[in-house]
Write a structure and sequence with these properties.
mainly alpha, Growth Hormone, Chain: A, about 80% helix, globular, 14 helices, 2 domains
Length: about 400
């Protein structure tokens, strides 16, 4: 088994690219993000069988996000003395156990327990993934390796929701989660075979995170990010009930519309990259504006199927540029602490997912799908205005301001 020791310059790069290990990391990310988003497409049957409301079932998303948030902030500190290979394998094992627990859960409490385990696995693995990939290839191959890694997220976005909805209608939601556990087994086996030993390096502490977040304009940027992702997940978590209850779409139709969302989302990552090259600030402001108007438009047309399908695709394309734009922002805003900034970005995303799906569930139970999409759309438009007025994309200095 290869072992990665500290290199002379970047302290981590492997002299020859370990592409098999990169693919193994990509499979891990794909499995985790797929499991995270499966409840979006299975919300209705999960709620029916467990005898709970769809709003309560949506807490399966928020619970995962809460624990992913906590884990993303603590992983580097808690595991600082453990070989990174074993830490990653442990998180992949948690992915398998969590999906099996959800698949077998006889009640809502045990289902949430499974989603807690998923949150721990997701937050830990995702926080470490980019830094790990940078240790698996030479410095000049890092961009390509990271592109491969992020393709796992795009693929999960495309396939998780529509495939989950389609298979759920054929084999049931429990067997869908069982299949997701098999995907985790595949990722674990390949990781075990390809990941080298990676001794921990550095002295990770929470102090660095605190220093970065206290830099001028960082709080405003992270607040803006949380608003945007909260608005998106308030809509995304409850898109199936909207399509079924408001638009009258069948299960097969839901799968098709969500597939359109995923494909448009994939295209949106490239559109966002092109727009970022012209103006990062404009891109960050434009995407939530389009998403919010699409959500409000879905409400205003009262669920007419054809225009709703188009608006869902437009929404998906706009969201595709959001992670790309904000990842670019964090590397430009704190170039000297990009890794710590990335941890804060992951935490911000997970906080927003928890808030969006959690508050969205309360709104859904109180006002129905139309209320969720109205308020979520307005939040996204408001976030766009806030970003336009106040966000800065230049580096923020290390000195306190």
């Amino acid at each position: 088994m290869n072992e990665i020791q500290n290199g002379p310059q970047n302290g981590s790069a492997h002299p020859t690219p370990l592409w098999g290990a990169v693919i193994a990391m990509t499979l891990g990310v794909f499995g985790l993000v797929t499991a995270e988003f499966l409840p979006v497409s299975l919300l209705t049957p999960m709620a029916d069988e467990l005898h709970i409301t769809e709003g309560m079932a949506g807490q399966a998303m928020s619970t995962t996000a809460v624990f992913a948030l906590i884990t993303s902030l603590l992983t580097a500190t808690v595991t600082r003395r453990i070989d990174r290979r074993y830490v990653l394998l442990g998180f992949s094992l948690l992915l398998i156990v969590s999906n099996i627990l959800v698949a077998l859960a006889p009640n809502f409490g045990l289902l949430l327990a499974g989603r807690v385990l998923l949150g721990i696995a997701l937050g830990g693995f995702w926080t470490m993934s980019a830094a790990t990939v940078m240790r698996l290839v030479p410095a000049d191959r890092v961009p390509r390796a990271l592109a491969i890694l992020f393709s796992g997220v795009s693929a999960a976005t495309i396939f998780a929701a529509p495939l989950g909805s389609y298979l759920g209608g054929i084999i049931g939601w429990r067997d869908v989660f069982m299949l997701a556990s098999l995907l985790g087994v595949l990722a674990l086996v390949i990781q075990f075979a390809t990941l080298p030993k990676m001794p921990p390096r550095g002295r990770a502490t929470l102090r660095t995170l605190v220093e970065v977040i206290n830099r001028p304009r960082m709080k405003f940027g992270l607040f803006s990010l949380v608003l945007i992702i909260t608005g998106h997940f308030a809509l995304f978590t409850y898109v199936r009930p909207f399509l079924e209850n408001v638009s009258g779409v069948t299960t097969a139709g839901v799968s098709g519309i969500l597939l359109g969302f995923g494909v448009a989302n994939f295209i949106g990552t490239y559109v966002g990259g092109a727009l970022i090259a012209r103006s990062l600030r404009m891109t960050i402001a434009l995407m939530p504006l389009i998403m919010g108007l699409a959500g409000i438009g879905m409400v205003s047309i009262q669920g007419a199927i054809a225009p709703t399908t188009v608006l869902v695709a437009i929404w998906g394309m706009a969201f595709g540029g959001v992670p790309v734009a904000w990842s670019t922002w964090i590397t430009r805003a704190v170039p000297d602490e990009a890794e710590s900034g990335g941890g804060l970005l992951v935490a911000g995303f997970q906080l927003a997912i928890a808030t969006g799906s959690g508050v969205g569930g309360l709104l859904f139970d109180a006002t129905g799908a139309l209320g969720v999409f109205t308020i979520g759309g307005m939040l996204l438009v408001g976030a766009s205005i806030i970003v336009t007025l106040g966000l800065r994309t230049a580096p923020v200095p290390a000195e306190q301001g």
